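== Protein entry: sequence and backbone fold ==
=== Local backbone shapes as whole numbers ===
==== Amino acids and backbone structure tokens ====
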Amino acid sequence: MPYQWQFKAGETWTDFPLSEDIESDFCNPSRASFIALSVKCDPVCFDTMTCGPHEVRRLSTAPSVLMPDFILTTEWLWYWEDEYGKWVPYSSIKEMHRMSSVYSSDLEKRYQEDNNAVVLFTAGKEHYELSFKDMEQKNVHYGTPRQVRRRPEFISSVGVQTARTRYGGVSASSNTSMLL
């Protein structure tokens, strides 16, 4: 798999048994946590990267913006939360929202260069600044803050097998080393 979820027990990192289920929820920007219904455990909180008292991490393949010619890289998507609580992908036209001047790939490239940067962009006639450190965008004129989330595109175990078959059995496990 191009990702693996783990929790820290003492000094040891241990794989979660429901890694694909956690990943599925994590990839949905409207989800702030994962709650396992089939096993008794604390929720995995994506904002704090904790599970009860335990630290949580997500191991991942390299971002697709850094290695565009490789298969099973992680494609990161960027979203902002509108005034109705809906998560809108950057550079999409949704309902009454104007298309932004930046795409998820632009934001990801900049994030990989400097994850504390502030990015300026426009949407229609409005000007915004997006703080990677705060994971927030603000309207420059009105000061209206909006929460931002960076989430990977979901790929299931079936999708991984399909990609491996299509591209000659390439293994992604050797690339799974980057942390979220």
